[in-house]
Amino acid sequence: SQASMVSNFIDINGLRYLPGKRWGYDANIFVDMEKGTYTFKKVKLQVEDNVYNVEGTVKSLKNYTEYDLTADAEDANLASVIALLPEEQLDAFGDFNSTGQFQLKAFINGKWSASEQPSIEFQFGLEDGKVDSPRLKEPFKDVSFEARFSNGEQRNNQNSVFEISNFKGYLNRELITLSLKIEDMDRPFVDFQADGALPIGYLYGLLNNPGITSGSGEVEIKNLAVKGLFSD
Fold first, then answer.
1. pTM of the model
2. Nearest to 2 by CA among 42, 61, 48
3. pLDDT tens digits, the chain, 232 residues: what are they?
């Protein structure tokens, strides 16, 4: 089966995904209608210019659907992850991209029903890369980091965790290191640490304020630690 389409939007649990995005697939899918089993082999799922390889099975029964799927990306970059974010995050990060050794894997395993959700996990990271945006005077260089999302043992928003670890990169030859952990997506608890220097002349564009047209100097950060509820 092959398909090519455009989504105006897809709403899942109150969040809007893939607004105005081109997507489609080229797939070999083996179907057993009596057992309700769909086996995915050599499936290429495309979102904009990013291609994901998907393999596994989906079993559709009367009261639940059972998933056992894995996915990774061809020629992945940061934009391939950002394209999957909800619309609110797309507005903030939609113009970021990367080059370098980028890895992306995703896993969905378990039952999805009125009372259950499957285990969902994303892993991605960058080594020896560059992160760029039109709002940066020049890209972050020699960037490396690891990132992970999991919906936890209870498989819900309250037990979900998003984590960025071992982030380091250079902007105008200034080193910045940071880590970030967010727990409970319904009432986010943030644990953030950073150290380094940020040259204002290269970063003011991230503020996205038309009244700010230039900048100079740098902000030195020494062992900054922020921990607590995001609402506080």
1. 0.78
2. 42
3. 999 999 998 887 677 888 888 889 999 999 999 999 999 988 999 888 788 899 999 999 889 999 999 999 877 788 777 777 777 667 667 678 888 888 889 999 999 988 888 999 999 999 999 999 888 888 999 999 999 999 888 888 888 999 999 999 999 899 999 999 999 988 999 999 999 998 988 888 887 788 888 888 989 999 999 999 988 8
